[in-house]
Amino acid sequence: MIKKIIFSVLLSMQVMGAFCQDFYSLSFKDSQNNSVSLQSFSGKKIVIAVFDAAHPNEEFLKKLDTLYRNNSSTLQVIAVPLLDFGKAISNDRLTALYNRLQLVFIISQPGNGKKVSGGEQQSILQWVTNKSANKHFDNDVEEPGQLFVIDETGNLFAVMKSKVSPTSAAMTRVISTKFKKP
């Protein structure tokens, strides 16, 4: 399973301050149209999870919820429903799904994940997929179920493919890793 994990460990202290501020300056709209500032999660790890807005994977969402509930004092989960893979189900149906599954983590409004979306790319995904913003990672969102982990200081810490379950031992190791300052 570990072979299927792509880790981008970022230890460059030289650029840390520059992009921490940029990450925490971002905000987005949640599924209820409330503005959410990432600054409010400073000091916690953040898992950005993407899923197909046209065909939400209930098992994946439940595992994200378990991850969040088991680590809520040190972790924030933000799920982004992607429009890249088909037209999203209605907001009413998405809300009904979230309520039926009793999800407690934050879900953003549906948005585009791929860079080809240009200015329409969801703001958090624009940050995690562009080296000019995060200073290290310059790949596109590849698939539903992909996970991006931001450390407690706002650094992009790990990128994991959909083969890695949010409740796997590999994910537990990633979110348990403490960033060590030299």
Name its key features.
Thioredoxin-like_sf; 182 residues; Glutaredoxin; 31% helix; 6-stranded mixed sheet; signal; oxidoreductase; alpha/beta; peroxidase activity; single chain
Mean pLDDT: 85
Q: What would CATH call the homologous superfamily?
A: Glutaredoxin
Low-confidence stretches: 1-21
Largest sheet report: 6 strands, mixed
Helix content: 25-40%
Tertiary shape: globular
Q: From the 3D coordinates, which CATH architecture would you assign? A: 3-Layer(aba) Sandwich
Structural class by secondary-structure content: alpha/beta
**Order of helical and strand elements:** EHEEEHEHEHHEEH
Strands side by side in the biggest sheet: 1-8-7-4-5-6
Task: Tell me the strand percentage band.
Answer: 15-25%
Radius of gyration: 15 Å
Under CATH, the topology can be stated as Glutaredoxin
* Count of beta strands: 8
Give the number of domains. 1
How far apart the termini lie comes to: 30 Å
Question: What is the class in the CATH system?
Answer: Alpha Beta
Question: Treating each run of at least 4 consecutive H or I residues as one helix, how many helices?
Answer: 6
Secondary-structure blueprint of this entry?
Layout: E1 5-6, H1 13-24, E2 27-29, E3 35-37, E4 45-52, H2 58-71, E5 75-82, H3 91-101, E6 106-107, H4 123-129, H5 131-134, E7 147-150, E8 156-160, H6 169-176
Parallel strand pairs: 4-5, 5-6
Antiparallel strand pairs: 1-8, 2-3, 4-7, 7-8
Signal peptide: 1-20
InterPro entries: Glutathione_peroxidase, Thioredoxin-like_sf
GO molecular function: peroxidase activity
